[in-house]
Amino acid sequence: MQTKPQTRYSDPELAEFRALIVGKLAEANKQLAFYVDQLTEQTDSDDGKKNELDDGTHTSVVEELQNQANRQRKLIQHLEYALIRVDNKAYGICRATGLLIAKERLRLVPHATLSIAAKKSH
């Protein structure tokens, strides 16, 4: 008797992934808040009190903080989309092949939408 290949993760598996994503989302939001606070401190130091860093270094620090904050925002967006896919029971399905993405990959990169094989071929 041939078993039919699994086309989606079960509800308990999706609940496990949801918990993982929610945890990663909380962590990402906390990190974003840190970067925003650091940016605020850097910008506030421009107004009035003299920053201890020279202008070039200060600009470089601000740009790096902005880049890190933007990366966090992008990660948060990807994680939020992953939660939507969990709710729609479409989570973990490779958008290129239609097959399930390995659990190990999803545990490492919970917002992944491509299997390793599909990612390598792109």
Automatic annotation (TrEMBL):
Domain of life the protein comes from: Bacteria
Pfam short name (any one): zf-dskA_traR
Boundaries of every Zinc finger DksA/TraR C4-type domain copy: 91-120
SUPFAM superfamilies with a match to the protein in the record: DnaK suppressor protein DksA, alpha-hairpin domain
InterPro entries (alphabetical): DnaK_N, Znf_DskA_TraR
Zinc finger (dksA C4-type): 94-118
Keywords: Metal-binding, Zinc, Zinc-finger
UniProt protein name: RNA polymerase-binding transcription factor DksA
Species, as recorded: Neolewinella antarctica
Lineage: Bacteria, Pseudomonadati, Bacteroidota, Saprospiria, Saprospirales
